[in-house]
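Write out the 3D structure for:
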Amino acid sequence: MTVFAVLSGPLPKLGVVVLGLLAAGAILDVEPRRRALWMLGALVLSPALLLADIWHSPQLHFVHHHPLYAAVGAVLALTLLGVAATLIARRPWLTAPLAVLALPFRVPIESGGTTSNLLVPLYFVVAAAALAEIVPALREDRPGPEAPARRWVERLLALYVVLYAIQATYSVDFKDALQNMVFFYVPFALLFTMLRRLHWTRELIVMCLQVVVPLAIVFACIGFVEYDTKTLLLNPKLIAANNLHTYFTVNSVFFDPDIFGRFLALVMIALAAVLIHARDRRTAIGTTVILAILWGGLVLTLSRSSMAALLVGLGILAALRWKVWPVLATAGVVVVIGAIALAVSPNTFGLNQGLNGASSGRANLVTGGLSMFGDEPLYGYGSGAFIDEYKQQHPLASKTLSASHTIPITIAAEQGLIGLLAYLALVIAAVIALLRGTRADPIRATIAAAFVALVFHTMLYADFLEDPVTWALLGIGCALAITAPLGRGDPAPEPAAIAA
């Protein structure tokens, strides 16, 4: 109890800064034993800060009144974590397919008075994989093999995490910044570190694709059922919105149609890469059928940002596979056709409601965010402060507002020019690192196209470093960028282990 009393005082802000430094150390340190200590510190401090933040909240009512049952549950969870860590320690490559399997699944949990859709299965995988690395590294008497040398992407990722933590200390919504650090930045930084250090083979890449494609098909089929029955499994806000409109939007298991659409778009980019490099008719036909299914699911999300991101990713793939100029010419034709369609029938695209109506209120968020940036241009209102400050300045804004839907503007408003420059440097360095030399490597080209599409999607929606897919693509892409093009020289994982 004394520990929580201390952590609930003035120390949480210092704790968040320390947490950012621990995550940065895990990203940057190439010596295994030191890196294990950074990771262990992050694993211990994250839940301590979170528990201190929510200790008196209603969701811990059971813990306060039934501490014995809570302790038994914690022991069982730690036992399962130990079993998973032991399995991963014996077969480190399992980190990749397990992480890919866990990426889409979110569990609604109330924290700090709000309900967040948290990636609980992914947290379990990250914690198990981290323990599988930490324990052997700390037990080893001799230094183990060092990780690959640091690149600018790693340095800028670490810098941004530390900046976010520091700028949380003066945020007008410190609780949100703390939760972002605990739920997103720290676990995803550990995920990046472990994926970055994996030995990626063609077989491992294919295995990850074999995990994610069936998931996408299942999720699309759930969307078809939702559309057919006009019912949603999740997200009461979307259910209410559907009742107000003549159209019906599906979200499958993602709580949000735009996040569902983003997931489908990224999987479709990977499948499109398979299609354009297919060497036999059977693969081409099967891939085309799957793409048609996923396209149907994407259309039912009505996510224009996801469809646009898909086009961007396909354009990158085409430019890397063939030539740039035909892709640019095609893009120009599409833009001209779109402009003509808007001019001929503006009502079809909602332009009769004005720009704000056509964009579902996002134009106001953009102008409001720019105004906030103008008020505090150097250092902003603090990490995680956008929604709280926007509502303060715009009392008539929707109470359900949860994002600015334009990541650069969110960063500019929250972190000012300091954070914006760090973000732009990170994006530029990542795009250069992932795109360089990809014409000779279809797998790297796919990773690069998916990352650029994701960055584009964040310009129209939300969640850049708050999305684990960003960190996963960066981890895999950075690992592949320093290795030779993948071949079949490495043995495939054991079938029995895959089945397990």
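Residues 1-8, 354-359, 487-500 have pLDDT under 50 and may be disordered.
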